Amino acid sequence: MKRFVLFIAAALLVCFAATAQKTEAMKGKTLVVYFSATGNTERVAKLISTATQADLYKIQPAKAYTSADLDWHNKSSRSSVEMNDAKARPELDGSVPNWADYTTIYLGYPIWWDQAPRIINSFIESQDFAGKTVIPFATSGGSSISHSVQELKKTYPSIHWQQGKLLNGATPSDISNWIQK
After folding, report:
1. Are 61 and 119 within 8 A, CB to CB?
2. What is the pLDDT of residue 181?
3. Is the Cα torsion angle 79, 36, 117, 96 positive or negative in sign?
4. Which option is the CATH number for 26-179: 3.40.190.10, 3.40.50.360, 3.30.390.80, 3.90.1150.10?
5. Where are the domains positioned within the chain?
6. 0.90 cut: is pTM over it?
């Protein structure tokens, strides 16, 4: 009986140690990277960062977008011009510190013209994604995330992509349920 109790105690100790080791290994290795023009995607990114205890990095354009730049009704607005040019790559301001330390990347963006904004392409092309898992998330006024993720996968096939999620109006509970899947 003593052996059985010792065996169970040892097994539990190993399980707890493995869980603690896994948690420790994940610390600092998950990053939530996002671009947000109006604050919607930023709000969701912060919820994901809190739920995953991940670091947070905001993708910043070298030249900030103004409300006129974001006027999708105006065909000559900056966002319209960029989205109509598949080769457009807005310049970035800054880079992720310690990028090599991260293995899991939550990548967030608003949906523009049923796609990820071109600044997401700028960001992806500025980093080495070898050995990283990318989990896209997005916010949108009416589009799904499906087409944008398909385009990203097609454009960057060497990246290890996970299933994306549209997170309009997401609550902390919604985020928690999603990341546990």
Report:
1. yes
2. 78
3. positive
4. 3.40.50.360
5. 26-179
6. no
